Amino acid sequence: MTQVDIAPSQVQGRPVQHLEKNYINHSSGISSWLLTLDHKRIGLMYLVGISVSFFLGGLFALGIRLELFAPGMQFMDAATYNKVFTLHGAVMVFLFIIPGIPAALGNVVLPLMLGAKDVAFPRLNLSSFYLWIAGATFFLYTLFSKQLDTGWTFYTPYSSSYSDTSVISATFGVFLLGFSSIFTGLNFLVTIHKMRPPGMTWHKLPLFLWGMYGTAIMQLLATPVLGITLLLLVMETTLGIGIFDPKKGGDPVLYQHFFWFYSHPAVYIMILPAMAVVSEIIATFSRKHIFGYKMIAYSSVSIALLSFLVWGHHMFVSSESTLATLIFSAITFTIAIPSAIKVFNWLATLYKGSVSLGTPMLYALEFIWLFTIGGLTGLFLGVLSTDVMLHDTYFVVAHFHYVMVGGTLFAFFAGLHYWWPKMTGKMYSETTGRIASVIAFVGFNLAFFPQFIMGSRGMPRRYADYKPDFELYHQLSTVGTLVLGVGIALLTYNLIRSIFSGKKAPANPWGSATIEWECPSPPPHHNFDHPPLATDPYDMERVEWDEEVQGFVPVVGRRAPVAH
């Protein structure tokens, strides 16, 4: 075992492709962004797009909560409520949560973590972004111009009995978004397999990349099922073929089987990248080697594979057989094991660590709290005896939001703050960031925890009105939503302000040992002047604080040896 110097033109015995010739130009004009093949710029364009989608979906959520502040109809009728409900769910799920961490943060960070100049297929990467733009445009046009009120799941036979073209145009938009997701997943799989630097074996891969790898598997295997399902829905609507509509000899439950066969893996397409982000942050801000590296890594792949076997727990009330119910319930409990492994390993990493509560760490700790509540309440929904009572109530709404919003959203905020200095080269205000995280955390719990109580007491979900018995709980939820909105607004102000007046960021402000922190902040066009060598990504003793640069720098002589 000796340390070796690798020539810039060789990585794992293969020539490094100099990607500069593939780029349209290096100017700063609009065309250089629209035609760029630079993974960093594509990631930033994704970030802008999904941020706009998030704020749009948040406005719809605020409209729903204001309408439900008191019994009776406030400023919407029931039909309008259904349309706004559809807008909120569809925009949040398809345009923000699913592409959020992989497409935006993943595009920026994944090649940097590998010490690569770009992803394996830069042109495919740009194509995936424009497919997302096309799908989002088509989808939003449909939602605003048509009378779509099916809910984000497009359940049949309601959706297949539409007399206009709302469902067709909306599902076509989702179809395009699915192709964008498939292209991104394919690109990440090939990049991780083929573009690792010398010495980066699978057991030296940062856990963020393990999470992206598991996510890519689900994107490639699950998303085509959604595409086929939506095409069948369009065929039934346009050609009158009886596939899902019972009036035509079809079976509406078949649609639910197809939809949830995709959508339960999609739950982990949303949450697995969030877990990957938290693994990086917990290790860095604990100044400690991650506990149980292999178990966390393997649990990511376990989640990806097991996620295909549990779709039936969404359908316990659809007259499934007793045997099917038992099997799906057992597998549901089984998939909780790899998730619990991650949580316990994060807590073990924190134990006796030198923990610093930077803004990314606060969001990561909030994620652990919220995701744990979401996971534990999911156990009630994984058992037939309790799911039958809770299935169509606000208990499910609260559980879903604790996992998807409390999980994915807070991890997205954690990762955004963690890699913001690397992406922009600017530092934000830590004080403002911490205040915003606490406000958002308090607001989120105030918004959604009361929904567990009213759901367990029988408040049905998807209703535009309710009995006065539930008024207090709805008012608490509405106030919590407003508080959460204040926290997010403060977060947004802090990050945007840093672009114009923030201090210049050092290459490694947090003291992480992963490769992306070895290039300048922001990275140059080619990322690295020389292909970096792989090290233990969680050897925190490899970096030390430097007062002169006000950041962490590598310790001379601490680079791990690389095998020939």
From TrEMBL:
- Pfam families found in the cross-reference section: COX1
| GO process annotations (BP) | electron transport coupled proton transport; oxidative phosphorylation; respiratory electron transport chain
Pathway per the UniProt entry: Energy metabolism; oxidative phosphorylation
Instruction: Write down the PROSITE patterns for this protein, in alphabetical order.
Output: COX1 (PS50855), COX1_CUB (PS00077)
Domain Cytochrome oxidase subunit I profile residues, every copy = 33-535
Q: What is its EC number?
A: 7.1.1.9
Q: How does it sit in the membrane?
A: Multi-pass membrane protein
Q: Does this UniProt record's set of keywords contain RNA-binding? A: no
Localisation = Cell membrane; Membrane
Give the keywords, sorted: Cell membrane, Copper, Electron transport, Heme, Iron, Membrane, Metal-binding, Oxidoreductase, Respiratory chain, Translocase, Transmembrane, Transmembrane helix, Transport
> What catalytic activity is recorded?
4 Fe(II)-[cytochrome c] + O2 + 8 H(+)(in) = 4 Fe(III)-[cytochrome c] + 2 H2O + 4 H(+)(out)
Q: Which InterPro entries match?
A: Cyt_c_oxase-like_su1_dom, Cyt_c_oxase-like_su1_sf, Cyt_C_Oxase_1, Cyt_c_Oxase_su1_BS, Cyt_c_oxidase_su1_bac
**A single GO cellular-component term on record:** plasma membrane
| Regions that span the bilayer | 44-64, 84-112, 124-144, 167-190, 210-234, 254-278, 290-311, 323-341, 362-384, 396-420, 432-453, 473-496
For this UniProt entry, the molecular function terms from Gene Ontology, in alphabetical order, are: cytochrome-c oxidase activity; heme binding; metal ion binding; oxidoreductase activity
**What does the function comment of this entry state?**
Cytochrome c oxidase is the component of the respiratory chain that catalyzes the reduction of oxygen to water. Subunits 1-3 form the functional core of the enzyme complex. CO I is the catalytic subunit of the enzyme. Electrons originating in cytochrome c are transferred via the copper A center of subunit 2 and heme A of subunit 1 to the bimetallic center formed by heme A3 and copper B.
Family recorded in the similarity comment: Belongs to the heme-copper respiratory oxidase family.
What is the protein name for this chain? Answer: Cytochrome c oxidase subunit 1
Q: Which organism is it from?
A: Saltatorellus ferox
